[in-house]
């Protein structure tokens, strides 16, 4: 494998840093830390450039908070200067990592995404009779820093650049020598690349008939149950021995005609239905906007916009009948609807 010549000078380039600031500030221009950074932008970028080249840039300053969507998670949001650093780093590094991924990896990639992964999975359901679906136990928390560093060193040869990435990786620990923070741009890219070897094992060594991965959720297909299970054994050994990861149990092995749940949808060969999680998100979103309308916090136009956002959660599924039933069961109060 020929390693990339991308170096630290590409990260610290003036044009790259300026573009990184604008990407990091997108949608956050009202925040105090963004306003303060922008007030003295040339000096702040000059200092950041100097620190990057000197290898002394500050990393690991993050704000932690909890979310529950759909399960409890701890999010680590980098401070704004570090967000700028992450964007500056991934601008030249991200495309190199992306070229190392197989086509059927869909997370954190331009032109792909969850819906494209769902459509691809439905395509394979229509072609192959058996599938296996797995995900990794506590994936982000169990990514090994040493192994990740070795994988990155196979793609990049510039030592100062590798040292910067190592500092960012080692700034967070879920356990000694392990873990990437959920919520950082670099973590998404590194985590997506971490499983690239497993992708190639399944596609090139196990010769699975079809394959789709969205971050650590992956599905593959075969012509019979035995071939699917053989690939499952190989995947489990590779994940444990080469990546220090464990596949969450129990795994799903089933017939394609019965469908599968993936990326928030219940996928059948000829239909795309809503998962329980997506149904719950629709109900919660609709209730939130209707409560705001009842309390006088928004007007009818605001409620209409809120309904549009709730509808977007279900728009790509075959859910017209289900939405009508939800509106019939819990309509907006008639007196308020006429206001």
**Low-confidence blocks of residues:** none
> Major sheet: size, sense and barrel closure?
4 strands, antiparallel
Ends apart, CA distance between termini: 67 Å
Q: How many helix segments? A: 15
Instruction: Look at the helices and sheets and give the structural class.
Output: alpha+beta
In percent, how helical is the residue content? 40-55%
Instruction: Please write the string of helix (H) and strand (E) elements.
Output: HHHHEEHHEHHHHEEHEEEEHHHH
Oligomer: single chain
Question: How would you sum up the global shape?
Answer: flat
Rg estimate, integer Å: 23 Å
User: What number is the mean pLDDT?
Assistant: 93
User: Strand percentage, roughly?
Assistant: 5-15%
The total number of structural domains is 2
Number of strands: 9
Q: Order of strands side by side in the largest beta sheet?
A: 4-5-3-6
Family: Belongs to the bacterial reverse transcriptase family.
Protein name: Reverse transcriptase domain-containing protein
InterPro entries: DNA/RNA_pol_sf, GrpII_Intron_Splice-Mob/Def, RT_dom
Domain Reverse transcriptase: 1-267
